[in-house]
Design brief:
340 residues, alpha+beta, BirA Bifunctional Protein, domain 2, seven-stranded mixed β-sheet, three-stranded antiparallel β-sheet, 11 helices, 41% helix, rod-shaped, binds 3,4-dihydroxyphenylalanine
């Protein structure tokens, strides 16, 4: 029996040594120490031993059992560590690999200017109006005091679709549309949008560009309201220290008409290359809505008056950011677009 036990121990320890997973070790434990295993069998057979032999074999059996148990436990710890290491190695993230960059994008500079203008004017109680880019001769010209064959049409040669339909040459037709819809009621709108002209494209001209139109109609609106409003907008977009200057001008749909200059933001008015030495930069046209335009749209011009203005969005962007060619806005070169 002693030999049997010793043999058992040798076999068990050998099996424990070669087992390399927790599962295999558990199998070894069941095989040698389980209820149906050889140890149990040996212990059961002890009853047949003599009184002298029993304690000797008993002691040996306990030692063998303890040795198997201890070796097993030690090996389990070893295997656990090996398994953990293998798992970690398999799951390693190589942090030296460069990640994939996403490009979040941003709104186009022209859109940024429009957004800024909309925020400002909505804050002043205006609403945003829209009109069609394919417009009729009626709204684009006639309702704005530009009858057929009026010489001022020459400045805005357009792309005609039919004799009576064209791509709008300015956002001013939205004035006429809004006034007709308002049915004699007060109006306060701005209208940003695309306009088209049959121009040669060069550094300052494009066959397609953007404008923002403004229109206010109410009782006793005066030139002072126009000037005050423009001053607020100029200071917001070009800086608190900017001044404005109104010069007489001509538009068929306003009377009186003005062209508006701002004091040069580069030299502050001393004269430089941006303002061509004058200290002033022209930024928009405007005026008091012509009584005839009001009347055509159903307003009583003896009771109601209004002011209007039109701004070129590209021109504002070019002035504000020193962009030297209008074509940069449309060629979608990321090196340009991503600067703003
Ligand atoms: N529509 C004019 C243009 O494109 C700009 C303009 C001038 C608009 C005076 C106005 C205005 O509303 O009052 O040249």
């Amino acid at each position: 029996m002693k030999e049997q036990l010793e043999q058992l121990q040798v076999e068990a320890l050998e099996e424990i040594k070669v087992a390399s997973t927790q599962k295999a070790l558990n199998d070894v434990r069941i095989k040698y120490l389980g209820k149906k295993g050889p140890m149990t069998e040996v212990l059961r057979g002890m009853g047949k031993l003599s009184a002298e032999e029993r304690p000797v074999v008993g002691e040996l059996a306990n030692k063998v059992r303890a040795s198997i148990q201890e070796t097993l436990e030690a090996r389990i710890e070893e295997v656990k560590a090996i398994e953990l290491e293998a798992k970690l190695a398999a799951e390693t993230i190589d942090v030296t690999l460069p990640g994939r960059t996403t490009f979040p994008g941003n709104s186009h500079l022209l859109q940024q200017i429009i957004d800024e203008m909309e925020d400002l004017f909505v804050g002043l109680g205006y609403t945003i109006a829209e009109g069609p880019e394919v417009e009729t001769d009626l709204y684009n010209f006639e309702m704005l005091n530009l009858p057929k064959d009026h010489p001022a049409r020459d400045m805005q040669d357009s792309f005609y679709i039919t004799d009576e339909t064209l791509l709008r040459t300015h956002t001013s037709p939205v004035q006429a549309r809004t006034m007709l819809e308002a049915n004699g009621q007060p109006i306060r709108i701005i209208c940003p949008g695309k306009v088209y002209r049959r121009d040669e494209d060069d550094a300052t001209h494009s066959h397609q560009f953007m404008q923002i139109e403004g229109l206010v109609v109410d009782e006793s609106i005066s030139m002072a309201d126009l000037k005050g409003t423009l001053e607020v907008f100029v200071k917001q977009l070009f800086g608190e220290s900017r001044e404005i200057r109104l010069r007489p001008s001509f538009f068929p749909f306003t009377e009186p008409s003005v062209e508006v200059d701002i004091s040069c933001f580069k030299c502050g008015g001393k004269g430089c290359n941006v303002c061509k030495g004058t200290g002033w930069i022209e930024i928009l046209g405007g005026g008091m809505v012509h009584p005839h335009v009001l009347e055509m749209a159903g307003y009583d011009s003896t009771k109601m008056s209004g002011f209007a203005f039109g701004i070129g969005v590209e021109r504002m962007a070019m002035l504000k950011h020193g962009v030297d060619d209008i074509r940069h806005f449309y060629t979608n070169d990321l090196r340009f677009i991503e600067q703003f």
